[in-house]
């Protein structure tokens, strides 16, 4: 009986051992894998092949200091260029213009040169965290009024590092720049608006600027509402200040104003008003209300048109081409009104009515002075009282008035055409 119990216990123990052995084996494998992963993580070297790791090692190896320029023994060459996205908001009132550009900069920093095999590539694109850790030229717009970077949806900046230490840096900028305008020929003018790029803190002993190849490029779809871009000039604008000589580059844009808008809004309407004032020369001399109303209407319309055309312009001390045109047109309109005043005077001119005594004197020549005196006294009054002289219309006055009207019909158009023949060539072809 005891033997049976013993065998039964052994049988149960064997079953338990057979059941637990696979579980222990699985648990052991899992533990081994866990230990292997921990050992791998613990013993792997730093990831120098990654971009950030490689840059960190490069900066530490060269003991990089972003406060120092790339070369201390000679001046650093910095190439500049711009790509124009848009040209907008050119204002004569504030004398400025606004542009949206990509500012491109290129220089070489020997401290950042690396072996392409070590870095695994010939070019490295630097991310946001490294833009402020490297030395960059302190370029600013000398004639800037306001400017800003673009950060939507990400900071619009690009920096690339090449194996020879060359750095390519591009930033997107919107800027409003001053443009001193000469409005003597306005609106037949050509404006020359500069963009000046200068170093703020480094003199030419530390760095100097040069224009890169194809320095100024422009989007094919850029258009200006009132101007036509007639090319540009590249210049060096380096200047000596009290603190030293600072490098500077300047690009000047030649902007020719489009005359189409002003022809429709200014020149054609004012010319028609002047022509309308000449209609009075064909209206009857006796139609005073019509001629006076037409003259006053054209004068007031011309005054309003002149004020409207000058409203968007700054108050400058010199005479503009638009001022000459408006003033001459106003003179023509006002002269047509004065012409009717002269015609009206001629047509209403009166002369003294000849008396009967004068008629008798003409008829009988040679009477004595006493008889003539008595006849005159009888004619002029009764009982010694003299009457005021009487007047009649000058029969030749209306004829003179008609002659003035006929002369004005030819003189006014001829003079205006002569003025136009002088005005347009002078302001279009002659450089002021």
From TrEMBL:
Protein topology in the membrane: Multi-pass membrane protein
Lineage: Eukaryota, Metazoa, Spiralia, Lophotrochozoa, Brachiopoda
Keywords, ordered alphabetically: Cell membrane, Ion channel, Ion transport, Membrane, Receptor, Signal, Transmembrane, Transmembrane helix, Transport
Gene symbol of the encoding locus: LOC106160576
Membrane-spanning segments: 259-282, 294-313, 325-346, 411-430
Species for this entry: Lingula anatina
Ranges for region Disordered: 27-51
Residue ranges annotated for the Neurotransmitter-gated ion-channel ligand-binding domain, each copy included: 55-258
Predominant location category: membrane
PANTHER family in UniProt: NEUROTRANSMITTER GATED ION CHANNEL
SUPFAM superfamilies: Neurotransmitter-gated ion-channel transmembrane pore (SSF90112), Nicotinic receptor ligand binding domain-like (SSF63712)
Protein name: Glycine receptor subunit alpha-3
Span of domain Neurotransmitter-gated ion-channel transmembrane: 266-353
MF (Gene Ontology): extracellular ligand-gated monoatomic ion channel activity; transmembrane signaling receptor activity
Similarity-based family: Belongs to the ligand-gated ion channel (TC 1.A.9) family.
Any single Gene Ontology cellular-component annotation: plasma membrane
Subcellular location: Cell membrane; Membrane
Gene3D superfamilies xref list: Neurotransmitter-gated ion-channel ligand-binding domain, Neurotransmitter-gated ion-channel transmembrane domain
Record-linked NCBIfam families: LIC (TIGR00860)
Signal peptide annotation: 1-25
